[in-house]
């Protein structure tokens, strides 16, 4: 595979950043005690800037909700099937998110831009504008509901169902992921523009999100035995890299999507697991090692699965 191949040129930087983190963790350049602080930096600072700044540029009036809704409905449907199949716990919710949440920015933008051009990027940016808002907010609500239920069972409390749901919804709204998304979306609808003195620092913080998150993932990987999680991570990666795009192809085609729109949505579904899933696993301390292994396996597997999807797409899309 030549180095100028769009798949390789998009995935290789991700693999190398994870490798940098792995070596840093292996040789104790970044010690285990610092991992939680780095995780807080990424989750409570960098991702805030990224989500708020992304949503500030969203003009709801110009979004193509028809195609977008098909992608999000496909992902949400698969999420709840995986959630139920794995027992409906908070751990199951994190693993279900692994099966649907794509690395649309770090890998998707350069890959789809190189392979399909500017027209395809318009479709992708439309998807990115709602991708985190819908899928991460949905997962946050489910995680908070599951966590509230599990805490109630553990403490043998008899608090009412409505109170439990109310607390979970409140925690889901006042949460590091939905809050900047909602705030940015509301700001975008005012028509105002962020002044440069504010936008520039936000841009720098947002740009730092992906590399720092991937390095952090590598540090965690250095403390993780992939061998004991290999089988499970292969299953999760296969669901993300193969089943997700297959479902998107079938449902998108059945809904009448064709051409570049369907191509981009299927390619987005075929992308490997995004770093946000790893951060959710760390935040809720659920399946951290398995999710870390799955992100790495999914990214490496994508070298072959994304190439396969790109090869087969013309047969479906026409």
From TrEMBL:
Protein's organism: Rhodoferax potami
Membrane topology field: Multi-pass membrane protein
Principal subcellular localization: membrane
InterPro entries tied to this protein: Mem_transp_PIN-like (IPR004776), Na+/solute_symporter_sf (IPR038770)
Gene3D superfamilies: 1.20.1530.20
Keyword Transmembrane helix found: yes
Tagged with keyword Transmembrane helix: yes
Protein name: AEC family transporter
């Amino acid at each position: 595979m030549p180095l100028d191949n769009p798949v390789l040129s998009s995935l290789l930087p991700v693999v190398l950043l994870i490798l940098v983190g792995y070596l840093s963790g292996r040789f104790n350049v970044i010690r285990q005690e610092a991992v939680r602080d780095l995780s807080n930096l990424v989750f409570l600072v960098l991702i805030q800037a990224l989500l708020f700044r992304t949503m500030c540029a969203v003009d709801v009036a110009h979004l193509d909700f028809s195609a977008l809704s098909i992608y999000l409905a496909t992902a949400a449907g698969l999420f709840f099937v995986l959630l139920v199949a794995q027992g409906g716990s908070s751990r199951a919710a994190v693993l279900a998110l692994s099966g649907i949440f794509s690395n649309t920015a770090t890998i998707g933008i350069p890959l789809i831009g190189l392979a399909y051009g500017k027209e395809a990027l318009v479709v992708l940016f439309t998807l990115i504008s709602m991708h985190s808002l819908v899928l991460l907010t949905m997962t946050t609500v489910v995680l908070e509901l599951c966590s509230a239920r599990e805490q109630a069972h553990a403490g043998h409390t008899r608090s009412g169902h409505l109170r439990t749901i109310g607390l979970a919804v409140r925690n889901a709204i006042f949460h590091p992921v939905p809050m900047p998304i909602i705030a940015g979306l509301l700001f975008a609808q005012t028509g105002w523009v962020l002044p440069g003195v504010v936008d520039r620092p936000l841009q720098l913080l947002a740009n730092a999100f992906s590399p720092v998150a991937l390095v952090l993932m590598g540090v965690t990987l250095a403390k993780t035995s992939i061998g004991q999680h290999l089988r499970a991570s292969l299953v999760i990666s296969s669901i993300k890299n193969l089943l997700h795009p297959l479902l998107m192809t079938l449902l998108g085609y059945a809904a009448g999507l064709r051409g570049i729109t369907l191509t981009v949505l299927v390619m987005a579904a075929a992308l490997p697991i995004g770093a946000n899933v790893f951060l959710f696993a760390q935040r809720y301390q659920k399946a951290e090692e398995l999710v870390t292994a799955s992100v790495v396996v999914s990214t490496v597997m994508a070298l072959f699965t994304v190439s396969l999807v790109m090869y087969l797409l013309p047969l479906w899309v026409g």
